[in-house]
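Q: What does the assembly look like in three dimensions?
Context provided by user:
Components: two
Sequences:
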Amino acid sequence: MALEPGQITVGSRVIKPEDDQTVLVERTLRSGQSVFYAGNVVILGDVNPGAQVTATGDVIVVGSLRGTVHAGAGGNEKAMVVAFRFEPTQLRIASHIARPPEGMISTGQPEVARIKDGLVTIEAYLATGERQAGGAKVTRKLAGARIENGG
Amino acid sequence: MGEVIVITSGKGGVGKTTATANIGAGLAMRGYKVALVDADIGLRNLDVVLGLENRIVYDLVDVAHGHCRLKQALIKDKRFEGLYLLPAAQTKDKTAVKPEQMKEICLQLKEEFDFVIIDCPAGIEQGFRNAIAGAEKAIVITTPEVSAVRDADRVIGLLEAAELREPKLVVNRLRPRMVRQGDMMTIEDIIDILAVDLLGVIPEDEQIIVTTNRGDTVVLMDRSRSGEAFRNITRRILGEPVPLMELERDGHFFARLRRIMGLG
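A: Here is the predicted structure of the complete assembly.
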């Protein structure tokens, strides 16, 4: 889809972003509602099943992520998805599409998804990650499928 | 000035019409003047559930198009003083009425009635748009099934977009035993996703089927569990703080026996 820089729509409404890099969505996205943004998106609320968030940059959900999120929609392989409760229907980063394994239960802790070695990987999100060299690190690999660009 | 409440769900078959009939009857039982509006044009049911089908002369579409006066189309209930039905047309479809016409009818009704309760059709298309057009408050009905909860979530989003904020939730057809065994969604699971206030929980009850088939309401029956649930919902609508009833009260004979003997 064609995303114009700085343009955001919530449902059918076009909202002017406060700045052209990151947009705050101060609401819960319910089934059927969607957000598209050329930049990063921070959602202060839940993303329910049936809702969709698409961003060219990172997506951060300050709440439960149960719907579908596409980060790095323009092809940015460094994009990541962070959620306080991580149980998405489907996860897309750049041209990767992943779904959680059957029966995956949320850890209830903040987690981050990003591409590592060509696979969408979910890990515990540690705000002080770089410094915690000795900390135990749990990595969960998702069943990943790569799609062709524009295919 | 009365209050206009729409009862909606998105998904069909979760109990909108039954809830409309019972909540309306419950309010009328308490002495309020209540108008029930069947907005399901083309698939009308509320008249059947209330046992008033054979009294219909004019309907909602006739009123909207000025073929009759509002008073002529209103049917007085046979049991409750103060309960009236504005039936839907059966030979037309949803496009026969416009949201502005619904708004106008609701405005007229709420001048005369304490409560105007609108039975919304399933779906989110024009029938839904019409039904919510004149409403000030909304009650969303769901059953403890993922599909019904998903549709309820969609509908709550659409209600919020239409400025109908803070809808209240009714969970219908809950089976406490299945919930206890982990085979059915719990109330907490549902609230966790929908994040709205709970107005009431109605347990699965065969009496509902019996009464609706007979054109009767369950809210009148003293010993019915679902009837009690509907009476509680009515009281909460009127602003009384009523705690959720214990759903498994009658479940265990021995537990009850122990309680009676002072051992429980």
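Follow-up: Chain A has one domain: 8-146.
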